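[retry 2/3] Elongation factor P: previous attempt timed out, resubmitting with same input.
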Amino acid sequence: MATTNDLKNGIVLNIDGQLWTVTSFQHVKPGKGGAFVRTTLKNVLSGKVVDKTFNAGIKVETANVDRSEMTYLYNDGVDYVFMDPDTYDQVSVSPETVGDSAGYMLENSTVTLARHEGEPLYVELPASVELTIAHTDPGVQGDRSTGGNKPAELETGATVQVPLFIESGEKIRVDPRDGRYLGRVK
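[retry 2/3] Elongation factor P: success.
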């Protein structure tokens, strides 16, 4: 248990049996009436975002979420298998838990696996990942006033929008949170 004064970004709360991460908070002291804390919460499992207001000083239930560095090994056809590099323990994680991150994970890459009471909650990737383009059509110089984009399929199977000058076989940097092209790797 913690009070609303202890709230900070990244803390996980257990509200009505569901886990919510605090993404932003603001302590408000109006001129009239009691103080309160205005928060924005994101559901850990579904990703739903809600605004919630707590009265100042009340107790909220926190959840213990363990984040650990894991190595992605392979997809066994059903689940994704991760290994703890310290203990060599392997953990199978369902595709629903991995979510969109699967399109940006290469075998032997390091990810962060969040667990609550031993149950995997979500997989967190670094802010940018380097992947090779498996296939993209050649860029056509046409009549356009601004730089254009084209779809490119990555080695993991995900598709991202890249500038026209990017060719198949090039290594690029991608933001795995939204699939945005960040630049070429030299």
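[retry 2/3] Elongation factor P: The first strand starts at residue 2 and ends at 3.
[retry 2/3] clearing retry counter.
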